[in-house]
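Q: How would the structure tokens look for this protein?
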Amino acid sequence: MGSDLRRRTAGSAVHTAEFIVSSARLAELHECSVLLRRTRMRAEEIVDEARALLAGAERLGDADRILSLRVQVEQARQAYSKVLTAYVTICRRITEERQAILQAQMERDRRAGLSGVA
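A: Here is the predicted structure in token form.
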């Protein structure tokens, strides 16, 4: 009986620690996503601004400037693509972490004899 009680207490402490770690990891991922969202929005603005500058140079027929701005538009577009990929990756990781937390909670509740129905 005593060993069973210790096992439950130890298991409960482990589950609590795992939940704390998972929650902290989820919070960090969320902070990263906020930063990447802002960066993505700014990168999108930069691409739009570069395209507008290129369109203006094309209207004026400024060949040298057109070549330079085309390179800059492509660089801005590539940077935006990298930021967007990172943002999508972080969002996917957040979803996975949330699912893992919910799954662990459901497993713990199942072991505790809770049906999940209120």
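The radius of gyration is 25 Å.

The helical segments are 2-60, 63-111.

Upvote if useful.
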